[in-house]
Write a structure and sequence with these properties.
235 residues; alpha+beta; Glucose Permease (Domain IIA); 2 domains; eight-stranded antiparallel β-sheet; three-stranded antiparallel β-sheet; 4 helices; elongated
């Protein structure tokens, strides 16, 4: 194998780290080096943790299915809840329940969040709150969160980044008035969390509770009525 081919193979095998993560990776590596001055065992533990940190901030490329009839997953993780729920009050979407799908991300998930559909950002609101387990249903209203409202071709929708037990930092790069493409990166949550998506009327959910999702690729729901699966719990 030629040298250029080897380099290309390595490039394809290694997942890039998002720029938000490099300062953390640097800190972890520096701590590992300092610990190594006292103990080789501590150095290797620090090096393993540095690798985990780099893995946490990985930012793989995704192939996004393009259709206004699709609602894409905004996060990598596991579908923890599918229900009808009233959107957060700061969304301004009223008190009529909307179809809500919740995606729980653990500390090993990709934490880059992606837009579930194309549209214009109408508002982005950060609300302080608790840091309870993001898997609890009450976390949608009690925990710290960032709510983004998007005017989509199917109507207004909300995507809510929710902090969890470990998460202490929600990042949303999208700004009011900006137009997002389906699958476009718009934020991240540091160290374990959840994303809720409130869909416009007419969405037919095509995932099940317990199913693993891929941000920007997994179709959570459709508006064309095709390939809709029953909602079941996978144990």
């Amino acid at each position: 194998m030629k040298f250029v081919e080897i380099i290309d193979t390595l490039r394809r095998a290694l997942v890039p780290v998002h720029r938000e993560g490099w300062p953390f990776v640097g800190v972890f590596l520096a701590v590992a080096i300092v610990l190594g001055l006292f103990s080789s065992t501590l150095f290797w533990i620090g090096l393993i943790l540095t690798g985990w940190c780099a893995c946490f901030f990985r930012d793989p490329e995704r192939v996004t299915p393009v259709s206004d009839d699709f609602v894409l997953s905004p996060a990598d993780g596991r579908v923890s809840s599918i229900t009808q729920a009233v959107p957060p009050p700061e969304s301004g979407l009223g008190e009529t329940p909307m179809t809500r799908v919740s995606i729980f991300m653990n500390v090993f998930s990709v934490h880059i969040n992606r837009a579930p559909f194309r549209g214009q950002v109408k508002s982005v609101t950060h609300k302080p709150g608790k840091f309870e387990s993001a898997e609890l249903d009450k976390a949608s209203m009690d925990n710290e969160r960032s709510t983004m409202v998007i005017e989509t071709p199917k109507g207004p929708a909300a995507v809510v980044q929710i902090a969890g037990l470990i998460a202490r930092r929600i990042v949303c790069w999208a700004q009011k008035g900006e137009t997002l493409a389906a699958g476009e990166r718009y934020g991240l949550i540091r160290f374990g969390s959840r994303v809720d998506i409130y869909m416009p009327e007419g969405a037919l959910v095509s995932v099940s509770v317990g199913q693993v999702t891929v941000a920007g690729e997994t179709i959570l729901a459709r508006y064309d009525g095709a390939s809709v699966h029953p909602v079941t719990r996978i144990s």
